[in-house]
Every structure is written in structure tokens, then in C-alpha cells.
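so my prof wants the structure for this chain in the C-alpha cells format not the other one, which i didnt know existed until like an hour ago. anyway here's the sequence
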Amino acid sequence: MTRVETEVEANATPLSLLDELVLTLLNEESGYFRQVPGWTLNCAVVGAALAELSFLYRIDTDMESLILLDTKVTGDPCIDPILAEIAQEPGQYNAQYWIERLAPKAESIIDRTLDRLVELKILQHHEGDFWSLARGAWMSGFHTSSEVGTAVEFVKTRISKALFYNEIPSPRDVVIVCLIDTCDVLRYIFELDEESEQRVEQVLKMDLIGRSIASAVSENIASPLLRRSTLTKPIPVVKLRKVLRSKHARSGNLPALFAELHEKHGPVFEVRIPFQERSIFLSGPEMNHWVHRNGRMYLRARDYFTDFEKVYGGAGLLPALDGADHFRYRKSIQPAYSRTRLEESLEVVYRYARKEMSAWNVGETLPAVTMCRNFVNAQTSPLLASIESQDIIEDL
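here's what i got, hopefully its the right format
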């Protein structure tokens, strides 16, 4: 048995509906999910979790109700908390109720699912919460409920066969088609003509579980039952004079200032500055996590560099690359900035480091920020840009 065959056998792991839905919605070109609105994505993810519980005979669901059949844990950390919450509820509700109630927990479900796919070496995680198909996943096979295929083929190829070759899909495939159709991304994944669209309509009617879950997701997207408000409290307002009275503001220690304001007012607060537009500040570890995950959609650099591009007659300035463009750029330059390439140039790095350190004197006290900035620039500027820029580093 070859090494690849051994890895295939070792990694032959059944994938859940959540795994398959995430892989179907993942857009490798952008490194994240296709353009699915947050609430819609959350509802679809919970719908997939409920469908998985149904296939495992823990619940039964139809167009009118959701019934608990068995409280025994499944061993899947993504769906067991959902099963436990359903078991704790004394009343009986329909799937739409549970999808909306559980939708706020969808992000943690997505996180655990992505972590699982990384552990299985199907996906590779990149800094900034981007994902791509791991290299090994192209070669390794993974057992699913219906067949064996590569990490790309086991979902999309099965769906293609059902939509374009009139093969009878498995109930799990029907659920996936129902969910991605409800998310309105099916047309972005496959090129659908009039005939294939009619086939989609046929597939959507093939399984009662798929129809009931998709209907519940669709109803929640259009008209939520509970209509919870996302704003639970007003944004705290900090008056400018209170900010200026802080010792950290007077000393110019902005990180300490914002840490102090975060401790007093929480992760989101407003600073009122006379004759200026509203200034909303986001701070703290929980907000860093939110920005790390959602910044690609809400915090854009491109808009700020539009005028620069017009002045210089260019397009696609590196600092202005956002989202998918930034992800593709980083993937393209990754080999040039790899650890292996750096190891090949260590002697050069040491030479520039020693040159910078030669100006230091024994017993001399150096400002940490300035010293570190100069020390790093002495090494990186010649290596990355082939120029020595120590004489203008302060201006930069």
C-alpha cells in the first residue's frame, strides 16, 4: 500500500450535512462563503443541523411540527448542543421556531465545523479567517454516505449528477440542494439553463425532510416568528472632556486610553466631538474577534484609496486590496515569502541585523518603539524591496 493510499484509509471519515453544506457554500476564490446574508446563512446552517439530527433518528420533522425522538448524544459537538436544547424545552414547536431560536448560535456551529474540516485536512486555514481546499484533500478520498470522491467531488459532483444527469439523489443531497437553493447561491455554483432549473424544482420535492427544513428556513428569512431586536441596549456616549482628563490621553498612550474606555463602557462606545460627525469606537478582544471574522464585509480599505488610484492612473493598489482580491494576492505571493525562502537568506538577514546593532553603545538606553522599528526595517527593507531605507524610516 502506498503512502497516499494509507492516508486515504486513515482519513476516511464520514462527513455530516454541516460539513457538506459548508464545503458547498465555500468559495475558494474568495476564501470564504459565497455572498449569503448573515441571517440567511445562520438559518441554513441550523437547518442542516436539524436535518442531520433527523437522519440520526433523534428528531422527526415535517411541514407542521418537530418531535423529539431520542435524547442520546450523537458524539458530534456541532449538533449535540442543539439536541440538548430541544430536549430541555417542555413545549413542542415547529422547525421554523427552532431555526430562528438557534440561529444566533450558528456562528459557533460554523466555527466548529470549519475547525473539524481543518483537522480532517480537507480545508486549510489562512490568517484573517480565510479558508482554501487543503492540498492533501485533492489526493485523499473521503467516505460519505453515498460514495467515495475527492474533497471537491463528494458534494458538488453528486449534486451535478442529480441536476444534470437525472440521477436519483440521496435524501442528504436533496437537503443540501434545498438549502443552497434557499440561500439563492445555486445559480452561482452551477450554470443552470431552463431544463436544469426544472430539474431543480423536481429535486426540491423529492424528500419530505428537505422540503420541511427548506420551507422553515425560507419562512424565517422572509418573516421571522420572534422578531428579536438585535439592539439590546443603547450605545454608551463618552463626552470629550472625560477623554481629555485621562492621564493616558495627556501622555499620548492611546492603547492604554482605549483599554481604559473599553473597561468602563464596553466594546462599543461613542465619543462626542463638537462640530464633528459621530465617532463610534470598537475595542476589546471580543470586537477584535468580530473584526477578524467580518471585517472583510464591513471594513473596506478600497474606498479610501480610490482618489489615489485616479491621481496615479493605476488600479489595484496593494493597500486597497480587500476581501477576495487580498486573499488571492496573498496566495500568489506566499511561495516568495515562505519560511523556506527566509531560511535560504538567513546569512543576509544576520548581516543586516549586525550592521544595525553595531551603532548601539553599551549602557545606552534606546526607546523601544523606535529601536524595534529601525531594527525590523534594517532587515526587511533590503529583502522585500531591494533598497535600504533607514535614512527615511522616520518619515515613512
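also thought this was worth mentioning. The radius of gyration is 27 Å.
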